[in-house]
Description:
This protein is of the alpha/beta class.
Amino acid sequence: MTEPTGLPSAIVDAPRTSLTELFKQEPDRLSRLAFEESGILFDFAKTHLDAGLVKAFADLAAQRGLVAKRDALFAGATINVTEGRAAEHSAERGQGSPESVARARGLQARMRALIDAIEAEALGPISHILHVGIGGSALGPELLVDALGRDADRYDVAVVSNVDGAALEEVFQSFDPAATLLVIASKTFTTTETMMNARSVLSWMEEGGVDDPYAQVVALTASPDKAIEWGVDETRVLPFSESVGGRYSLWSSIGFPAALGLGWDAFEDMLEGAAAMDRHFRLAPLEKNAPVIAAFVDQYYSAVRGAETRAVFAYDERLRLLPSYLQQLEMESNGKSVKADGSPVDGPTAAITWGGVGTDAQHAVFQLLHQGTRLVPVEFVAVSEPGHALDDGHHRALLINCFAQGAALMAGKANDDPARAYAGDRPSTTLLIDQLTPARLGALLAFYEHRTFVNAVLLGINPFDQFGVELGKEIAKSIESEGTDRFDASTRALIQRAFG
Length: 500
Ligand code: F6P
């Protein structure tokens, strides 16, 4: 029998055995549900997936055509049906159809040549990189540079996304216009915030005495004609394929600030790390396949246990931007109400992704996780090797806190005083990375991409479009062009109050 969630009763009506009881009932639990891939230990043992549920979800995945859809993804089939395109981000890391891999390699060679030229000071003595872009054209590169570039002294890299002028102004205070490379990252090359920010950077350069600011501009885009029309010299336009989605684009020329700031070798290592995860996703059996098991966990808590959110805590400062990167990846991909064929979905789609860094979050939001009334599956992401040279005590304390939180959520603690009691049986997943190298980060991010894809397949939705973001943009434009008459009283009053 299929439930309103669209899930079979083998999943919906599975016994709700507690986590501590599951560890007793399944002596092989840890060896089945904690496994290593690409230097990352994926530990799903503190979730409620038991052998029966894994089998039931594997059957569901077979019924929903996961293997065929995965093959279609890597083959470059038109899997983004609503936009009539393929989704070829894996081709950027050498995993795709021979034609798309060759095209990606060609475009990467072009990027590398420009990086070599910049390093040889062909564009003058550049020491500051000002990357303007938003959403997928900013979150990925910003995460890479923040995570891996802490000791890099090659260039100062700033990523500005917000149209709020305060964001640019802050960068202007420390950057020298004559030594700044403006990098405009926009797949469409039409995004209002990015184009406005780019124009303001050009004005700042002019005011700062740069004779020809356009000579210090690079464009990263799938619309090269628009970039050229805007004024970027063709030799400094780094295209990427239309079939690479914005939130999946850090592997393409959108990763330019990382490739320049961290060095080409690091960028290539990151691509190779992601390729290793692609191979794992394609070849590993479903019950030992990290993105697949992670998606089973996501679907179980969201559809069966009613979890509205999932929380990700990076127990490593270098990964502090991971939660916001994942918010776009997961919520823009799977926050939908209709399936790929246009019919309504059967149950909830993407949970709300949120999170922060440990140990800070322990002193702010963990109260609710331990004692609140809402179920929040938690994901801990930690790194064995520290990212600093301070006394080892810091890192040991960080990791012990991380592991203690997972244990506490699961075990709970009885107390006669209800205010001091912990119910326990709260699930968590832990991802423990051996070292935060470019290859490991590439593998980690590819894992999240594939997990998002498997979730979409199980839900029957297309993760590669994002029509939900359009209406707000349209209305903002029409306020500027048509005025406010057609809007409601509240919106009119707000505009009147702000602008008079
Ligand atoms: O508004 C959403 C969105 O289209 C994202 O999907 C995308 O990553 C972002 O805007 C930026 O778009 P672009 O790269 O075309 O400027």
